[in-house]
Amino acid sequence: MITGLAGAASVAPEIEIKAMSPRASESSPPAAQDQGEALALLKRHHRFPGPYMFKAIGPGHPSFEARVRGAVEKVLGPMLDTDRVRVRPSSGGKYSAVTLEVEVASAEQVLAVYDTLRALEGLVALV
Hints:
alpha+beta; Alpha-Beta Plaits; four-stranded antiparallel beta sheet
């Protein structure tokens, strides 16, 4: 599901973004209709430009945090506020959740970040 910070009402519908297995990422991209629906929902429930939260769950290794940050910066440019990155390890330390709160210019930019994050090795889920 996609969640955000600005303009997100508790009754807002959720858009589910699923992580893909390596084989699934080699398949064709989502249909234009699916992308159009995602853009419409994002525009309806979030204000752009504005803050947006991305959360990626993957291996509990410091390199995963760096790869998540790098993927977001690939689309949005260098992050300036390091307080916007939080890492929470699982109880056993096998996984970690990396949360980034960033400024995005548009709904299209949000989808571009998700596309980049989906390609990360070891990604378990996007929230």
